[in-house]
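call fold(seq) -> tokens
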Amino acid sequence: CHSRTPEVFRLAANHSKQQPSKPCEAELTRALLFTVLSNFLEQSRFIALLMYILRSSVRDSVCRIIQSDIQHYWNLRIVASSLCLSPSLLKKKLKNENTSYSQIVTECRMRYAVQMLLMDNKNITQVAQLCGYS
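ret:
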């Protein structure tokens, strides 16, 4: 079975690049991807590596949400809901990362403001509006 591993990887890669036109093609792509994944699962360190890669900080998650629409009036409740957390749990998790919601919002807006001032030659009033300040 292991002698066919490179062939399965190649097939999975080719099928995942194509848009399936029939349900059976989509099912084949899915089966091939699961086969590839099962090969990795046999490696004892794969799960630990995958968990390490997928674990991002709450701060980074909050920042990504805010940066997705910097002009939007974000508040703790909306961001917490986007992360499937309660506002109090989000505050607690951010405190454990030595930061706060308001600190992250300010940092994201300031970073965006600097980018706008340097790259787009906008004035302070325009940049403030683009950053969500009214």
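The radius of gyration is 22 Å.
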